[in-house]
């Protein structure tokens, strides 16, 4: 839980898609986001599920893990770019470790473990809130 404001309060009401395959991390991210008034879509833990969600709905911003059960999430990043949906990366991996990493150019990367303040501030900046 956040003990003080983590960033601009414009995060209230943002629809955030959480793409994370580690259950405990996904729930932690969800709780961090809901604590500041965001609506969480997902979490989803596979590339296929993330792409399906993006076909069905349009989040305001996305928190994207780069490694989903051993599969690169670059296809999700490419779709987000094509749809012009802003996103951040939450990952222990370096962006240049993946083929197709050019789709991550200028994307904010937050290392794990994710700190609430860093997450909220990065999402706020990324979506222009």
TrEMBL record:
Top-level lineage group: Bacteria
InterPro entries given in the database record: Bact_response_regulator, CheY-like_superfamily, Sig_transdc_resp-reg_receiver
Keyword Phosphoprotein among UniProt keywords: yes
Keyword GTP-binding: no
Sequence positions bearing 4-aspartylphosphate: 65
Pfam families per the UniProt record, alphabetical: Response_reg
Entry protein name: Response regulator receiver domain-containing protein
Organism: Cereibacter johrii
């Amino acid at each position: 839980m956040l003990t003080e404001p983590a960033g601009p309060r414009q995060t209230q009401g943002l629809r955030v898609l959480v793409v994370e395959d580690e259950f405990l991390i996904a729930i932690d991210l969800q709780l961090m986001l809901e604590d500041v008034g965001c609506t969480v879509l997902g979490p989803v833990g596979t590339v296929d599920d993330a792409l399906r969600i993006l076909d069905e709905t349009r989040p305001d911003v996305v928190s994207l893990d780069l490694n989903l059960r051993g599969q690169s999430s670059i296809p999700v990043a490419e779709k987000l770019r094509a749809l012009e949906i802003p996103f951040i990366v939450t990952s222990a991996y370096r962006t240049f470790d993946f083929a197709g990493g050019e789709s991550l150019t200028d994307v904010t990367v937050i290392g794990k473990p994710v700190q609430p303040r860093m997450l909220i501030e990065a999402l706020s900046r990324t979506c222009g809130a």
